[in-house]
């Protein structure tokens, strides 16, 4: 909380990716270090970056333009145009704030102040107990002071916009005020795979509605206080410095996915009694908690329903409270990814009798990010072996990392006894967020920004 908590929300003061999500088909994350000899220059150059920063108000305007262009094309029975729209946001680490001389007021988030590297073991990152630390890409063990996020409708637009941003800080010249630590880019998958991550599942379906911003939530979409996502707003219980109002913490993870290997696993362990293709699809759906279309298996446990999956008025409207959902795994396994990371009725429904509901609102995050790497090649599919790196650039926004991303990872996903109240059954670890033989997703280089 802060003295500004009751100040009306100004969408021109909130960076665009947080509440609304930057429109994108392509996106880059540019991690940088501030030159210790040119901090003064960097501070002055930040003023020239301000006009480039895309606010939530601008994102709303940009998305309205996209909707209008699509409607006009539909009415005229022509292909919709691709509008050239780009977005820029910036974030700083605790080290970056200290480098800028912002050290007289604590921002009030221990996880942010310590950095993700310090908590890698608790997050279950491979190699964390070794003397050299977790098996992250080496760049992410270096000093990272900040990250510039650039999005656009094409890689060309993103490249050109990032070049203009880098030019502000004289990158590549002798007087550069920042230096690249790591640059990672990704693209929305093509054609009918748009919106699906590389394993093939529709992504980004379940997001919280934010009070004061999302005025018309869909059925089943829980509403959380504004302060669950933005610092200094109602629901944020930590005292923040005034300059942090309407900011948010972003947790970043670089997730590699071994798609051919998972497909082989699903095929070789297909649920029996039905054709192999159907049985492997069912196994995948039970690991994730949704079919690839996005349809939740709690609503359609035996076969996919693409119409349901594509319907925002139905695809989140469930709470694991059908029949014996709380005591059996006939419809949705307790260990399914979406159940481990968003337990819904497992906590919010009183169970066993006499226990009070447990609200999950404080632990909600807004997920962003984009896929990276090429589509699976014919050779990879045939051999069942990954030859080209691909996966997900995962980003999550929250006002409290310890209540948000880290809590979900440690207390839910990596906790084999979660969800609770399951009698003699130990649910197990989330198969897609830990070092699992099943999903083969490895968290190689995360960073809090």
Structure description:
The protein has 449 residues and is α+β, with helices and mostly antiparallel strands. It is built from 14 helices and eleven strands. The chain has helices spanning 16-19, 39-49, 56-75, 94-99, 110-114, 120-123, 155-168, 259-268, 276-288, 306-309, 337-341, 345-348, 378-383, 405-413, and strands at 26-34, 86-92, 146-152, 178-187, 209-210, 223-224, 249-257, 366-372, 391-398, 441-443, 447-448. The strands form three sheets. Strands 7, 8, 9, 10 and 11 form a five-stranded antiparallel β-sheet that branches. A four-stranded antiparallel β-sheet has the order 2-3-1-4. The chain has a two-stranded parallel sheet with strand order 5-6. α8 packs across α9 (276-288).
Condensed summary:
The protein is of the alpha+beta class and 449 residues long.
Radius of gyration: 22 Å
- The number of helical runs is 14
How far do the termini sit from each other? 21 Å
Silhouette = globular
The amount of beta strand, in percent, is: 5-15%
The helix/strand order is HEHHEHHHEHEEEEHHHHHEHEHEE
* Structural class determined from secondary elements: alpha+beta
Fraction of helical residues: 25-40%
The oligomerization state is single chain
> What is the residue-averaged pLDDT?
92
Got a strand count? 11
Low-confidence stretches: 434-449
Major sheet attributes: 5 strands, antiparallel
